[in-house]
Amino acid sequence: MHKETVVIDGRVIARALLEELEIEIKNFKEQGIIPKLTVVILGDDPSAMAYVRMIEKGCKTVDMELDLLKLPLEATEEFLVAEICRLNRDDRVHGILVQMPLPSHIRENVILSTIDYRKDVDGFNPINAGRLVVGADTYLPCTPGGIMHALDYHNIELSGKNAVVIGRSNIVGKPIAMLLLERNATVTICHSRTADLKSHTKNADILVAAVGRANFVTGDMVKEGAVVIDVGINVIDGKLVGDVEYNSVAPVSAYITPVPGGVGSTTISILIQNTLKSVKRALKRMETK
Q: Tens of pLDDT along 55-110?
């Protein structure tokens, strides 16, 4: 391993943030305010349920109220929209998360647009996505928010650095590119049609792999001393592996996130942080009325 390689331990970073959030929640409760997150899930997809269990564990850790709204897989789009509108109107609910992916008969864009942007703690409503692009205050999508928190935790300098993001999804690729750009990194977004990908990755001071292909990034693609952030979650022979081939990449990296135990661990803490941000915003609106 690179003599100065630092493994970015997402579990440690998340634990530190959750401890801070637990204190915030306790303070709210002393004022008679009960922060509440509602998660809506259709059906019982195993990977979706695994994520929901992680949310349950995180909320339990900080003693935050969580309401699980489980709907049948065959629930109609109209029914789901009606349920979201009901949650939008409920002042006791501060955060709404609709678990993706949705069944094929329900349009994702319709659902994301229906969630009140003020309660959209996943940050995917078009209003929040737009606010992110223009650099306005908004809810950071949880995985990109977790990445930025991990980089800051280790005091990793971003200004003037070359950052390469592999992947252009609305969930990770695009928002992390915007966040890095906002911090004065020079950002290149690569994807499945990028010609000579290696020429880009070899130039990256910060490399974010969010392509969804197991062990896609290998050691020969990485610049010596780079910061490598692995967002991938892939299952190979029953084992969880990232988009980065850890054993060949770690020796040339200055910093690297493992899978599991890296970026994924920070995601839930950002979700809870976003929910508390919603509480604060709601209180501010009440004060100005």
A: 999 999 999 999 999 999 999 999 999 999 999 999 999 999 999 989 999 999 99
What's the gap between Cα 192 and its chain centre? 22
Q: How far apart are the first and last CA of the chain?
A: 58
Helix-, strand-, coil-residue percentages of the chain, each rounded to 5: 45, 20, 35
CA-CA distance, 207 to 227, in Å (whole number)?
A: 6
Return the closest-CA partner of residue 124 out of 14, 87, 132.
132
Report in angstroms the alpha-carbon separations of 174 from 18, 125, 140, 155, 286: 26, 14, 12, 23, 34
Per-residue 3-state assignment (H helix, E strand, C coil) for 8-49 = CCHHHHHHHHHHHHHHHHHHHHHCCCCCEEEEEEECCCHHHH
DSSP codes of every residue in 185-198: -EEEEE-TT-TTHH
Q: What is the pTM of this model?
A: 0.94
Helix (H) / strand (E) element for 162: namely strand 162-166
Q: How confident is the model at residue 3 (pLDDT cuts 50, 70, 90)?
A: low
Parallel, antiparallel or unpaired: strands 226-230 and 234-236: unpaired
Phi, psi of 186 (to 5 degrees): -95, 115
Position 191, amino acid: H
Name all domains of the chain by residue range, CATH numbers in brackets: 31-116 (3.40.50.10860), 141-264 (3.40.50.720)
